[in-house]
Specification:
The protein is an all-alpha fold. It has 14 helices and no strands. Helix content is 83%, strand content 0%.
Length: 350
């Protein structure tokens, strides 16, 4: 007759041998841990994205220059990245701010000089002084919170930059040290963590790379069209389009709002119609040319699913949800065996 301890040991061994149940438990543990450290999620995502990009860049350079040391490539890459950030903040950021201010002022002046804004003057007539003061207080508090958020994001980004630098610099040591966990007493646990890590890295990497190239193509096409239409502040509009294009499907549509405002202030309804036609054409190019080209139809989701995923992920994760929502959903589809991600190139470690 088996004792209670023997039953527990037997159940434990059966649990370890049941791979599907074991991986489900490990995935649940990972989700709980990530929820507990959710306050550090910005740093985690920044570090992951930076590390993934730089590691793949190092592999790409070594493919062309195999004799070059990975450490030298890493150091040179981060030095160039810091120089780009320095010049971007000191030279191009003031230019961008001035262009955005000019863009906003041009829209405001257009509406102020327009005689058809009767409704605006009617509302303005009935706004009380108390309401105005409340709005001013709200504006000041919003400005303070925005400045604070910018400071926090800047510090988080710098810390992520440092972490990704040391990870990439010691990539071989990191891999050799991490293999020690696979031979420990709880090797099954770390093997499952490695399984999910590899799956997520591959899935996220495919979607991230594809969406990044799609955003570049969308920005180039849009910038050319805006230049032909002789729109003002092209640099600021191009940056806005690029940022919105990082959001799958919805980004192209969302970018229509600021573009239409500027177009209406410059050329009226005619230019707005041109902008809408341009967005429809670009969206068609993205849907039927860029997505099949860059994603090879591996991560292609119906538009309804994409919008639902974006809405849900934005609700739970805010702005980050718009960027990581689709990759996470695709990762879950891959894990559940609903839709696997097939790679047309060798998997690269990040």
């Amino acid at each position: 007759m088996m004792r209670k301890g023997d039953h527990m040991v037997d159940a434990w061994h059966r649990f370890i041998k049941n791979v599907e149940l074991r991986r489900f438990v490990v995935l649940a543990i990972i989700i709980v841990v990530l929820w507990m450290v959710r306050s550090m999620m910005n740093m985690i995502l920044f570090t992951f994205i930076l590390t993934y990009i730089v590691v793949n860049w190092v592999h790409l350079v070594r493919r062309w220059l195999p004799k070059l040391s990975p450490a030298i490539i890493t150091v040179v890459t981060y030095v160039l990245l810091l120089l780009l950030l320095y010049f971007g903040v000191t030279k191009y950021l003031p230019v961008l701010v001035r262009q955005i201010v000019k863009m906003v002022n041009s829209v405001v002046k257009f509406y102020e000089s327009n005689d058809t804004t009767v409704f605006y003057h009617y509302i303005n007539h009935y706004i009380s002084t108390a309401t105005i003061m409340n709005q001013v207080k709200h504006g000041i508090s919003l400005a303070v919170s925005t400045l604070t958020s910018i400071g926090v994001v800047t510090v988080t980004f710098l810390l992520s930059l440092i972490l990704s630098f040391f990870y990439t610099l010691e990539l071989e040591q990191m891999e050799s040290f991490s293999r020690l966990f696979l031979d420990s007493k709880f090797s099954w646990f770390f093997q499952d963590v490695a399984f999910f890590g590899k799956k997520f890295t591959n899935t996220f990497g495919v979607v991230l790379e594809a969406q990044f190239f799609i955003a570049i193509c969308n920005t180039v096409i849009t910038t050319v069209c805006l230049t032909v239409m002789k729109m003002p502040q092209i640099f600021a509009l191009a940056l806005i389009v690029f940022i919105f294009s990082l959001v799958p499907v919805a980004g192209v549509i969302i970018s229509t709002i600021p573009l239409s405002l500027v177009a209406y202030s410059v050329g009226g309804l005619r230019d707005v119609v041109y902008i809408i036609i341009m967005v429809i054409v670009i969206h068609a190019i993205e849907a039927y040319v860029l997505n099949p080209k860059f994603m090879s139809s591996q991560t292609d989701l119906p538009i309804f699913y994409t919008f639902v995923v974006l809405l849900v992920s934005e609700h739970f994760w805010g702005t980050w949800g718009l960027i990581v929502g689709v990759p996470i959903f695709t990762f879950l589809l891959d894990i559940l065996g609903v839709k696997s991600i097939h790679h047309h190139r060798k998997s690269r470690r990040a």
